[in-house]
Amino acid sequence: MRLLIIEDDEKLAPLLARGLREEGFAVDVTGDGEDGAFRAIEYDYDLIVLDGMLPVMDGLEVLERLRAKGRRTPVLMLTARGAVQDRVRGLNAGADDYLRKPFEFEELLARIHALLRRAAPESDVCLGGGGLVLDPRTREVTRDGERIELTAKEFAILEYLLRHRGRVISRTRLSEHVWDENFDATSNVVDVTVYRLREKIDRRGPPLVHTVRGAGYTFRSADRP
């Protein structure tokens, strides 16, 4: 899943980005409210972490512009303010949750997962086929009952293919969903990651991730098309 962090704290923003990337998220970061509003409107994100106090355009203005454009992306607002009226203003403007600074990364992560589940209730449902089962809640993957250890990127690719089962997903779309804006589109990292994923899941049975020449990848098994 791809997240956008709009935070101008030069120490906090990279720490949050690094922690979330280690959890398997693709993360884009900006410290400017106007730039953040542009990105949030023009690009598709699964969730936005938005600081309330930003240069050029503050968090409330970003949020109001986002909602005015019809964007319903879940927004977790960060604030150094503790006043109830500030939180009420944010929630009335369309924020989905609030987190007061300073906070523990574990709480931020828990709130992000909660908002993602709320936005897509089906995200807790196990996915699979051909004897393979992926559990989004525990991030566990098994095939015929045997556990398979995947890296964060391998898991993200497999989950995305399973959620779009029956459709061919291009390399570009996979890269946009699994990697962030720093991804080098000319590299072969997508193909290499898919190759490693196949090595792990296909050694236990018939192939599940298939290449559609010139188009991308798809998940297909004999028990389900």
Blueprint (SSEs and pairs):
Blueprint: E1 2-6, H1 12-22, E2 26-30, H2 33-42, E3 47-51, H3 59-68, E4 75-79, H4 84-93, E5 97-100, H5 105-119, E6 127-129, E7 132-135, E8 140-143, E9 146-148, H6 152-163, H7 171-178, H8 189-201, E10 209-212, E11 216-219
Parallel strand pairs: 1-2, 1-3, 3-4, 4-5
Antiparallel strand pairs: 6-7, 7-8, 8-9, 10-11
Helix pairs in contact: 2-3, 6-8
General shape: elongated
Q: Helical residue percent?
A: 25-40%
Query: Which regions contain 5 or more consecutive residues with pLDDT less than 50?
Result: none
Structural class: alpha/beta
Tell how many strands the DSSP assignment holds. 11
Give the N-to-C terminal Cα separation: 25 Å
Strand content: 15-25%
Q: Any idea what the radius of gyration is?
A: 19 Å
How do the helices and strands follow one another from N- to C-terminus?
EHEHEHEHEHEEEEHHHEE
Strand order of the largest sheet: 2-1-3-4-5
SS element count, helices: 8
Q: Whole-number average pLDDT? A: 87
Structure description:
The protein is an alpha/beta fold and 225 residues long. It is 40% helix and 20% strand. It is built from 8 helices and 11 strands. A 5-stranded parallel β-sheet has the order 2-1-3-4-5, sandwiched between helices. β4 (75-79), α4 (84-93) and β5 form a beta-alpha-beta unit. It is elongated. The two termini are 25 Å apart. The model has no long low-confidence stretch (mean pLDDT 87).
